[in-house]
Give the backbone structure.
Amino acid sequence: MEPGFDVAAETGVDVEAATDGEDTAPAEAVDLTNKSVIKATVLLSELGRHRGGITVTELAQAVGMTRPTAFRLLLSLEQTGFVDRVDNRYTLGWEMARLGRLADPYTGAVARVQPILEEYAARLNETVSLAMVRDAVNYDVIAEASGSRYLNVTMYVGETYPVHASATGKLMLAEMSDDDVAQALPKKLERFTPATITKREALIQELHKIRDQGYSVMDNELEEGLFVVALPVRDVAGALVGIVSVNGPEQRLKSEGLPDTIDQLRAASRDIAKALLGIEPV
């Protein structure tokens, strides 16, 4: 807590009474979050997807908010430099850019998601990783946890992998249109194993399947014997912000237990979205 900050005075909540002392669990959880602040961050996240600007009506519809609420929040954000407006179209403001240059992109995110990754890694007894999306075809693996007590080193954090031969990469490509994928990738793709998809059109067909089923797999395509399943982490508007994946030997993951693994990853995705964004994902 910051020096001089009085929670009771600022919030009207007697925290000591609400929590019944430091050494005991609270009888009833006290929600100290400010819903307006959360709604404002949702608007800012959606604005980041519209470099050319977006109207208040379009923005409110995109995030499932009433137009008057969105307008009031945008007006406040505009006054503080977090939002700019040209005519009737809103974009992220100069203050967002300034703070973005000062912020470490992933330290806070790792602290929030690491316990979740460890929980699901223990459940699955495999390695669970989280990648954050940088742009349409680039991502950063920022955190991972192993289900084995004998494996304490990080294997995937900081590494990059070809988008056409990784579960995370294919999930990102599935967010794009077929035409955009065709423009982003060459007709002939690099081969890493006999199972690597090397024809762009064949990859596009697999992307159709990924869009339908909502998850992607990497089956021996990057490294023989390695099987990976990946699911999206989305914000309240459905935009892809991250990808959670489980990595392990083919003989263990590619089995009758795969549907349960996918269900576990889907639950992990929801937990990560809530931890990172403070809201229930779509």
